[in-house]
């Protein structure tokens, strides 16, 4: 006798993808503590901070892949994942600026963009979800790369170098361009989504 088919159920909140998200969130204060040891002048602790940031950034990629490939997408993960992402990168930008390793205007532009896009998501959320674009994923990667280059004590390890300075600014400049361009693209897509939703509602009215 065949057993009845199992009913579809939601994935458990306690799963590997959500655990990685929580780990990333917990690594944020660890990263900041390591970064601020000796006011950022400790080579060893800067290396630790860079390592912690790298591990946290890797979990950002892994948790999403695992959630999608194993059917582990949950409401908790949908909320916690972006919070963990913003907490990690936001802490890094602010921390670097507090240590005078990053200009404040860069931090303000990048964090301002993230806050604006978050508010925009709430503005359109009842009309639908705007999927992450390739540009958005590239933005996240290049931002993480830029943060890593500034967290690493490269001058102390390799000595002052105009090539190193140029590389950092080139990567940071690309991160800024992607930040602004993808932000503008998100605004355009959000406006189109709102217009499409309004048009659909208008067409349904008898």
Describe what you observe in this structure:
With 206 residues, the protein is an all-alpha fold. Residues 1-7 have low confidence and may be disordered. Helix content is 77%, strand content 0%. The longest helix is centred in the C-terminal third of the chain and has 43 residues, at 162-204.
Task: Outline the biggest β-sheet.
Answer: none
The H-and-E topology, N to C, reads as: HHHHHHH
Shape: globular
Mean pLDDT: 84
Beta-strand fraction estimate: under 5%
| Helical residue percent band | over 70%
What is the element layout, followed by pairings?
Layout: H1 16-36, H2 43-69, H3 75-98, H4 104-124, H5 134-151, H6 154-158, H7 162-204
Briefly say what this structure is.
The chain is mainly α. Helices cover 77% and strands 0% of the residues.
Could you name the key traits of this structure?
single chain, 206 residues, mainly alpha, globular
